[in-house]
Design goal:
With 295 residues, this protein is α/β, with parallel strands linked by helices. It is built from 10 helices and 10 strands.
């Protein structure tokens, strides 16, 4: 995956809290103990850490730093081609450019959502969370939260091949949840049920499909400011990295790796095969209407 070296990056779409000093307290697990596997199975949650029972009393939200590193270092597509944090900024720009234009075609308005970089733990409108929860979208403040260290864990803990587009898939999936939130679909996960046919799984698979839709259009979507695509090259090897990442975080793969048995009745995100299938569906068709996993 390559970005236009000369394209400017819009760092206003990312809030860099990596250097922030988060006030008192630490995230705790409410309502009893939740094991490591339980946290791992919550990766890519669409409804925020409050759904995992992660709380920290009335601790305030902290999502800003006095001097943003990304504002200093992530200025052009050239930076995105060399740094992970700048690459995420560029992917956020591209994903939101696509959805802005897609909503506009349907005479609707896309409301941008910022991505928040953090280290270790963060306080959000959905409650306190640690990096163990993985990337997530909080509908209460409409922000995506991401500890960049997760990309290393995706490779070392979950066995994904890694690569730039694996990172892009993660980001695009979370923005799939934002699209669901804007469309009123995300509320379908609030029934608290799990299992291979649950609404939670269907919601996650739809977000995978939306990530694939963006990938289909990534090299043709013009940047809102320059009129040129921010992403200039996306190869089949890149797409394979995305598919590999989708499979690595399938419920069955995670259960096999961390508890040595598969229990479909506890699934919340779908199997490796399902996640690949729906990402592929979006990528092949490029049509959000073909992402109706609830039918």
């Amino acid at each position: 995956m390559q970005f236009d070296d000369d394209a400017g990056l819009d760092t206003s779409e990312v809030q860099d809290a990596r250097r922030s000093r988060i006030p008192g307290g630490r995230a705790t697990i409410g309502g009893g103990l939740v094991g490591l596997v339980g946290l791992l199975l919550a990766l890519f949650v669409g409804v925020g850490p409050d759904q995992l029972g992660l709380t920290d009393g009335d601790s305030p939200t902290s999502t800003s730093s006095s001097l943003s590193e990304v504002q200093q270092t992530c200025r052009t597509g050239r930076d995105a081609n060399t740094r992970d944090d700048c690459r995420v900024v560029a992917v956020v720009n591209s994903v939101q450019d696509y959805w802005t234009q897609e909503f506009r075609q349907h005479e609707a308005r896309y409301t941008p959502a910022p991505t928040v970089f953090f280290n270790g733990q963060i306080y959000t409108a959905c409650g306190a969370a640690t990096s163990a929860v993985g990337p997530f979208y909080c509908p209460r403040d409409r922000k995506v939260y991401l500890d960049l260290g997760f990309f290393d864990e995706l490779r070392t803990k979950f066995g994904a091949s890694g690569g730039a587009f694996a990172q892009a898939y993660v980001v695009a999936h979370e923005y799939g949840h934002h699209v669901q939130d804007l469309m009123g679909t995300l509320g379908r996960t609030q029934d608290g049920l799990a299992g291979a046919n649950s609404n939670s799984v269907r919601t996650e698979l739809q977000a995978d499909c939306y990530a694939g839709v963006w990938a289909h259009h990534a090299t043709t979507t013009p940047d809102e400011s320059t009129g040129r695509p921010l992403i200039t090259s996306l190869t089949q090897a890149d797409i394979q990295d995305g598919l590999d990442a989708a499979a690595a975080v399938g419920d069955d793969r995670i259960q096999e790796r961390f508890q040595a048995r598969v229990t479909p009745e506890t699934w919340t995100h779908g199997s490796a095969q399902q996640r690949q299938q729906w990402f592929g569906q979006g990528f092949r068709t490029g049509d959000p209407a073909r992402c109706d996993t609830f039918r």
